[in-house]
Write a structure and sequence with these properties.
Strand order of the largest sheet: 1-2-3
Order of helices and strands: HEEEHH
CATH topology: Rossmann fold
Helix content: 25-40%
Shape: globular
Structural class: alpha+beta
Number of strands: 3
CATH class: Alpha Beta
Length: about 90
């Protein structure tokens, strides 16, 4: 929440947090429906690696949150597993 509405770029935020990628997302509610949109952004290149939207019932928000978290974890595994690709790209290898 510290970075909500911040003017800092993803590379600046990533440097502050000492991370290679950042997850950004939004939550929208319309009546009893919820839409969660999440995206994984590689820094410092500011490159979008993955994005997805999920919709569900407001009363089942925890299950929807679990689904989003699992998808993000799977994407991180995909990006890191083949020879730690994120680190290699960052180091120019």
């Amino acid at each position: 929440m510290v970075y909500k509405g911040a003017q800092a770029s993803f590379p600046e935020i990533a440097r502050e947090l000492n991370v290679d990628a950042v997850v950004e997302g939004t939550v929208l509610r319309s009546g009893e429906q919820v839409r969660i949109t999440a995206q994984l952004i590689q820094t410092p290149a500011d490159k979008h690696l993955w994005a997805e939207s999920y919709e569900g019932d407001l009363h089942d928000t925890l299950a929807l949150q679990k689904k989003v978290a699992s998808a993000i974890a799977q994407q991180i595994r995909i990006e890191l597993t083949p020879g730690n690709r994120l680190c290699e790209e960052r180091e120019g290898g």
